[in-house]
Structure formats: structure tokens, C-alpha cells
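Hi X.,

You mentioned you wanted examples for the new student's onboarding notes, showing what a folding record looks like when two proteins sit in one file. Here is a clean example. The first protein comes first, with its sequence line followed by its C-alpha cells.
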Amino acid sequence: MYLDEQWNHSLQENNFLPGPDFPGMKDYLVVGKTCCYVDCTCYLKDTYNLSLFFLFFLILLFLKTQKHFQDEPLNLAVILSECLQEEKKVLASASEKQGCGSPAVQQKWKELDRGVNELKRQISEVKKEVKSLEFLYENLDYVQKTWQNKVEQDSGLAQSNAAVKEGCLKQANFIMQTKEMVLQQIVDILNQAEQIVAALTDVELPEWKRRQQLACIGGPVDTSLDHLEEWFTAVADVLIQVNQELQKLQDQSKKYNSPDASSFPRETENFTLSLLTKLLANALVVDKQPIMSSLPQRPQILKTGVRFTAAVR
């Protein structure tokens, strides 16, 4: 009866061409009790999807068990109903733990979004501070050079030379304090970026790979890479901008003969490059697992000497 209903449903949807031969399966089950079970299961596994294979297995199990309940078919129906209810509970529990729509996962993703957005905001502030430092350096350099020329041309200004030098010294100290503040902001960005990179490469990416494995065996899980791609791209962009701002600070120190040029924190730049390297090393993943054209619904099942396709991202 079930196979007849499936066949009628396929006819109504005009989906009988790619679908399974339900009438043939019915005849096979009713008439061919003595035929080989292994041949039929192999045929189903090679021709149709895994769900149909389990359906056929359940039908055979039902036929085998039916003879024990010929006098009490109601008991068989009750047992089957209880088994199906328990199966639904197990599937619902597994989907809640593994699915991306659970409250815990959504909360974790919101925290990652906030962390990435905070990195973007902080690097934007650093870029403004570095630009203001360039302006302060230019003003100080202009005052020092023009005042020196004026003193050489007019000896009467020599008395004011000490006051001008004191003002320039105060300006230089302010520049150094501002630069130290910018460097501290960069260190804070890198510390926060380190936590996000660890969360992406050590937690989120392995969890996505696990979901992909479950999807390959028919699990109803989300294998989208959109969130990971967005986070990886945003953090990598922030780290690249950090490296650029560090290079600008180094160029400023050399250009204006800053006294802190020799003590420039090289370890900060090395730390930035190490985070960027770790992020990029884990950025390339297999988006679609290898599949054969003859079995598109069953990835990771390959035969020797047969062509297959895969996609990286």
C-alpha cells in the first residue's frame, strides 16, 4: 500500500522519470521472496539515495516481523508507533545539538560579529591617530627648520631661541606620548584579534568540517561558509591594515629622525604577521567534497580509475 501511494504521488508531480520504480519494488517484495536480498540492497545503494535504502530495509524487516503478529496486528502497530516516536525524539535532539539554529550557536556567532566589528572600529581610530601624528611631525619639522633660518638671518632673534626650543621639545614629547598611545591601541587590537583567530581556526572551522561530514552521510545540517568567509576576510583585512599602520609609524620615525626609531617594537609587527599567517593557512577549505558524476548524492565514495569533481574555497 505504501509503495502504491508513493507511485501515485510521483505520477501527480510528474516526477516518475528520475524516481524509483515503486511498482517494481512491490512486485519484487510480494512475488520475489526467494530472490537475493544482497543484490537488491546493492542495487538500491548504487542507484538511489540512502533514504530509499533504509526504506527498503524497513519494509523487509516489517515483512519478516509480520508473521509473529498475524493474530494481533494492533500490537505490531503500537510497537512501530512507539519506535517512530523515539526516532523522532533522537533526531530532534541531534538536530538541536548540531544545528546552527540553536540559541547557543546563535549567541556565539553574535559575539564573534561584535568582536569583528570592534576590531574594525579600533583600526579605524588607529588610522586617524597615525594621520594626526603625521600632521604633528610636519608642523614640528617646519617650525624647527624655519626658525633656524630666521635666527641665522637675524641675530636679534637669538634671545627667543631658547623659548622656541622649549616649545619644540614639548611638542616632541607630546608626539612621543601620542605614538606610545597608538602602539598600545595596536597591541590591544592584536590581543583581541588573537582570540578571534583562535576561535575561528580552532573552534568554528573544525565544527564546520564536522557538519560537512554529517551532511555527506545525509545529516540535515547547515554547511554554509558565508559566516566563516565574512569573519576570515574581515579579520585578515584588519591585520593587513595593522601592518600598514605599523609601517607608517616606522617610516615617520625614520623620516623625522625620531629618537625612538631604533626602539621600534619589531615584535609587534612579527606578532601581526604570525596571526595573519595562521589565519590564511586555514582559509582554504574543501567547499564540496569529491563526488562521482554517477553518484552525486553520495560524496566521498569514489571508485579507482573514475573521474570525480571537488570544489575548494
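Then the second protein repeats the pattern, sequence line and then C-alpha cells:
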Amino acid sequence: MATRAIHLEPTSDMTTQSFLAAFRRFISRRGKPSNIQTGGQIYPRFVQRR
């Protein structure tokens, strides 16, 4: 049996500082995750092209 979940949280922009602030809020609410998986580098590549 596998359990998967996603957590979406809006941020004001796509900076590292905004990500870290959102991640800290997540940890304070839910606790430290045992595993983090990302969907690749879609957004960083997209932002660089603009």
C-alpha cells in the first residue's frame, strides 16, 4: 500500500527566498518530510527563457 500526497502553496514570486519561506511554513505545520520528490526542473528552465 502506497500513500502519496501533494501540497500546493501560493507564493508571491518564484525566488529562492519565497520557496524557502513556504517550505518553512510547511515544516512548521506538518513536520519534517521523510522524502521529497520534485517533478524535474521545468520551472527553472521556463524562468530562464523569459
